[in-house]
Amino acid sequence: MEQEKSFKKQHVVWTSPTLLEWFPPFFSLDDWGSCQRPMDKYCIVDAVLHSSKPSPLLDVLEVYSSEMYKHYNRTQIHRGVCVSRCPGKNNTDSLVEAAQSCIDENIKAYDLEAEVVSAKWCNTAGVSRVSQSARVMAVVMVTILVITIAATVVSFVDPKMGNRYLMAFSLKKNWLILTRSRTNPNSDPRLKCFATFDGIKVLGIQSVFFTHIILIHAYAYSDNPEFIERFYDQFPWKVLMNSPLLLQAFFVMTGFMTAYMALIISEKRKITLFGCFYSIVNRWFRLAPVVIFVLWFTMAWFPLMGSGPHWSWIVEKEAQECSEIWWYYLFFAQNLIGTERFCLSHLWYVGADMQFHIVGMLLLLVLVRYRKMALPVLLPLFIAPGIATATVNWINEYPPIIAGQPPEVLRTLFSNWPRMTSIYLAPWMNPGFFAGLATAFIHYSNEEKGIKLNEKKWFCTLSHISIHLCMVVSVIGVIFMADDLPPWWATAVYSALDRNLISLFMSFLILGFASNCQSIAFKMCSWRGFRALGKLSYCAYIIHFIILRLIMGSNTNLVHISIFSMVCFVILTTILTYLACVPVYLIIELPIVQLWKAIFEAPKRSPPVEPITVKMEQANNGHAEV
Fold first, then answer.
1. Is 263 a residue whose pLDDT tops 90?
2. Which whole number is the average pLDDT over 554-562?
């Protein structure tokens, strides 16, 4: 670790075009079109550079790569190689040996040598394998489509002909749910406090899209990887590297909605252990359908949908690794298994959401009954993640989240990066959910006492500036990406406070919105146009990475990274994601939710208590927080 710190203290102007032109290309791809004869094999090849004699170039590459927090490891090269065209291919069956001859030819002009360390994720021209899983999924999807068509026809001809189970699949009925207001005249007027949640989720999802677009560009093969490296020296991009902190906003919303609805339900029904158990099962049925569909699609159909030099690396690799760990996703434990395998890694949030819901319902079983215990119990739970993060960072000398994302780590999508599991993915390191629970208790108590926070100028001002305070926390983190690092005690202090402060300030924002503190942000987030998009936000979060991989994996050339290309990528990804979400929502997500509700609400099968999540569905129309 001391070595890493000394590397960061070095400051060399590495961005000189002349210097970078001296380097061997970090990424390179053989022509894809010329490797399409039957049985031609195109592989992703990694090689390590070395030299049997003194080499000034290799010395510079090693020093350049030693600044690991801002540079790729340039002592390695990554190639897409048409192995079947390599010299000497007919003399060996080993892909590594065959690729070695191509790499030797590729690197010869730089007076260096290279040792191939892997040649895998290969695509064989003319070979397309339809798995048994793909056939079974096709049968299942055709069956669902037939049921959907039948239900839709019945709903148009005579809705009374269909029973509630069939009508759960009606496109007409589900379209009305998608487009109607989140609250209606017959619902509790207090549910209007959720009116801004759609806008927050839609705008938040856009920031997630942009962050993941940067990630996929760092992961894919590009002709200017130095563009990513420059991020670590430019202030706006440094701030963007701290954007994962803002994910606490979604945990705050989830906690707020869970606790607030439980408090409303408790006015009429006693919350029991059975009710909490049912709420957890209900949550599973709301989150699982889209996750199962996307997971199955990734393993079975996605690899068949395209080809290209990146395809095996970006798409097929994930499909294979998903097939090895898919069952973790059924139990929403995907954020607890480490990062050795890459499988829909962005779904860690969904796993944490489910785990927080289980913990939250067990807490509410007690706290709703003994409300005076709420803040004394929730405050330590809110503070504990910060202390745990600071302790882990101090012991292991880890940097904060902002500085824990080197280019080489992004290139491998955090594979085998222990900091990701111990600091970021672990639910006990995220305080936002508990801040949301506490905020709900405060808001509910204010309503009971007739306290109107929107009439208190000081609080409205605090709520208005809360998002700016979040940005201040993110900006402060930039000092941990400087060449001269702050002392380790400063790292521990910032790690202890960053997510907690973001959660606290987002709680002020949510409480202000719920209390109807008028502002430009309040009016923007309450815009009617966000209603349908807000309901699609969970689905959009789940499937947007498939869209990203589809676009990137289909590219047959090296990617050229620029601000303009990334903005275009954001626009294209947003449009395609939401277009894909509409059928997935209407045919997969909502029908399963509606079917589950129909089974539960069937005549003569009422449970002994009113489940908490039934009215939660009225608040969010069957949509998980993203």
1. yes
2. 91
Give the pLDDT band of residue 610 (cuts 50, 70, 90): very low
Give the number of other CB atoms < 10 A from CB of residue 336: 16
Angle formed by the axes of helices 590-600 and 612-620, to 10°?
140
351 contacts 430 by C-beta, under 8 angstroms: no
CA distance 626 to 241: 20
Report the pLDDT averaged over residues 20-47: 90
Determine contact, residues 460/512, Cβ cutoff 8 Å: yes
pLDDT exceeds cutoff 70 at 558: yes
Residues 83 and 188 in one domain: no
- Tokens encoding 103: 């790499």
Residues 113, 199, single domain; the answer is no
Same domain, 31 and 98: yes
Q: Rounded to whole angstroms, how far apart are CA atoms 65 and 482?
A: 17
Q: Angle of helix 273-300 relative to helix 612-620, nearest 10 degrees?
A: 50
353 in a structural domain: yes
Give residue 269's pLDDT: 87
The chain-wide mean pLDDT, for the chain, equals 87
621 pLDDT band (50/70/90 cuts)?
Answer: very low
Q: Is the Cβ–Cβ distance between 549 and 305 less than 8 Å?
A: no
The verdict on 98 and 221 lying in the same domain is no
pLDDT at residue 181, as a whole number: 67
Average pLDDT over residues 422-441: 93
Question: Which of 125, 146, 161 is the last residue before a domain boundary?
Answer: 125
288 in a domain, yes or no? yes
Work out the angle at residue 257's Cα, subtended by the Cα atoms of residues 252 and 261, and round it to the nearest 5 degrees.
150
pLDDT band at 89 (very low <50, low <70, confident <90, very high): low
506 φψ region: left (φ > 0), alpha (ψ -120 to 50), beta (else): alpha
Domain that holds residue 195: 181-600
Are residues 465 and 541 located together in one domain of the fold?
A: yes
Residue 223 lies in a domain: yes
Q: For the chain, how many structural domains are there in total?
A: 2
Contact between residue 432 and residue 359 where contact means Cβ atoms under 8 Å apart? no
3-state secondary structure of 189: helix
The reply to whether 443 falls in a domain is yes
Q: Rounded CA gap, 400 and 407, in Å?
A: 16
Helix (H, G, I), strand (E, B) or coil at 103: helix
120 shares a domain with 56? yes
Residues 218 and 118 in one domain: no
464 and 528, same structural domain? yes
Does position 597 have pLDDT exceeding 70, yes or no? yes
